């Protein structure tokens, strides 16, 4: 297995959690932490070096920089930088503020990392991935999308049915946000479609209640703790592995797709087969009703993206 150079841009609470998970992956040779707070990012890097020295199963070189343009030759760049979501805010509320940050990072990093895979976590993630791709002018830009929603869904459904999460498969698709939804046609328990499984077991399943819980759980965690960290870190590492390990991975994350009903390509999440350097969305796994809902989700994302671009223009003029 080739060992890779990975950069994490933005080491706030989420960035630290993601970077710490990346640090433990066997395919990582070099980890670069990027944050505009120079003393802070150097301190985090020093802590990581101590961890590697005593607890890591493999050696990792850890570096820290405060200027994203200093990073060169990365294999994977993970962007978590941005204004975090606060209690009472929707992800969409962040679009204007975070678009400027995406533009700045994209323009700073893409020239010296032309072959890197850029993975975006900053919210609203689908629109911000589109903004990043617009200004980076490179092809391999993806969003973490609904991989986190998928993890939350599987956890919530498993508890609802009284089974272990590992026995549940299925995907949350569309927007990482208000218009995203569970693709129930993809949901299985023990390899049996959830509708048949529930009927066999004589259980009741309120699908709407499960889906509503998925939508509100992030706000509940943020209200209780101030941020979401470990759930995202776990979900994101699955996507990172998809690009790092040359095996097939079926995931839900943000990829660019075109729909006849939508005026321009949109980045959103569908079940997608990924192995290192190869990405194939599998829209055919969704039924007709789900595909119609996906189009509506795409329209919502495009609207947020346009709002972000408008905000960038207004910032330029002011």
From TrEMBL:
<feature type="binding site">
    <location>
        <position position="123"/>
    </location>
    <ligand>
        <name>substrate</name>
    </ligand>
</feature>
<dbReference type="InterPro" id="IPR036291">
    <property type="entry name" value="NAD(P)-bd_dom_sf"/>
</dbReference>
<feature type="binding site">
    <location>
        <position position="98"/>
    </location>
    <ligand>
        <name>NAD(+)</name>
    </ligand>
</feature>
<keyword id="KW-0560">Oxidoreductase</keyword>
<feature type="binding site">
    <location>
        <position position="91"/>
    </location>
    <ligand>
        <name>substrate</name>
    </ligand>
</feature>
<feature type="binding site">
    <location>
        <begin position="10"/>
        <end position="15"/>
    </location>
    <ligand>
        <name>NAD(+)</name>
    </ligand>
</feature>
<comment type="similarity">
    <text>Belongs to the LDH/MDH superfamily.</text>
</comment>
<feature type="active site" description="Proton acceptor">
    <location>
        <position position="176"/>
    </location>
</feature>
<dbReference type="GO" id="GO:0006099">
    <property type="term" value="P:tricarboxylic acid cycle"/>
</dbReference>
<protein>
    <recommendedName>
        <fullName>Malate dehydrogenase</fullName>
    </recommendedName>
</protein>
<dbReference type="Pfam" id="PF02866">
    <property type="entry name" value="Ldh_1_C"/>
</dbReference>
<feature type="binding site">
    <location>
        <position position="35"/>
    </location>
    <ligand>
        <name>NAD(+)</name>
    </ligand>
</feature>
<dbReference type="InterPro" id="IPR001557">
    <property type="entry name" value="L-lactate/malate_DH"/>
</dbReference>
<keyword id="KW-0520">NAD</keyword>
<dbReference type="InterPro" id="IPR022383">
    <property type="entry name" value="Lactate/malate_DH_C"/>
</dbReference>
<feature type="binding site">
    <location>
        <position position="85"/>
    </location>
    <ligand>
        <name>substrate</name>
    </ligand>
</feature>
<feature type="binding site">
    <location>
        <position position="152"/>
    </location>
    <ligand>
        <name>substrate</name>
    </ligand>
</feature>
<keyword id="KW-0816">Tricarboxylic acid cycle</keyword>
<dbReference type="Pfam" id="PF00056">
    <property type="entry name" value="Ldh_1_N"/>
</dbReference>
<dbReference type="GO" id="GO:0006089">
    <property type="term" value="P:lactate metabolic process"/>
</dbReference>
<feature type="domain" description="Lactate/malate dehydrogenase C-terminal">
    <location>
        <begin position="146"/>
        <end position="308"/>
    </location>
</feature>
<dbReference type="InterPro" id="IPR015955">
    <property type="entry name" value="Lactate_DH/Glyco_Ohase_4_C"/>
</dbReference>
<dbReference type="InterPro" id="IPR001236">
    <property type="entry name" value="Lactate/malate_DH_N"/>
</dbReference>
<feature type="domain" description="Lactate/malate dehydrogenase N-terminal">
    <location>
        <begin position="5"/>
        <end position="140"/>
    </location>
</feature>
<dbReference type="GO" id="GO:0004459">
    <property type="term" value="F:L-lactate dehydrogenase (NAD+) activity"/>
</dbReference>
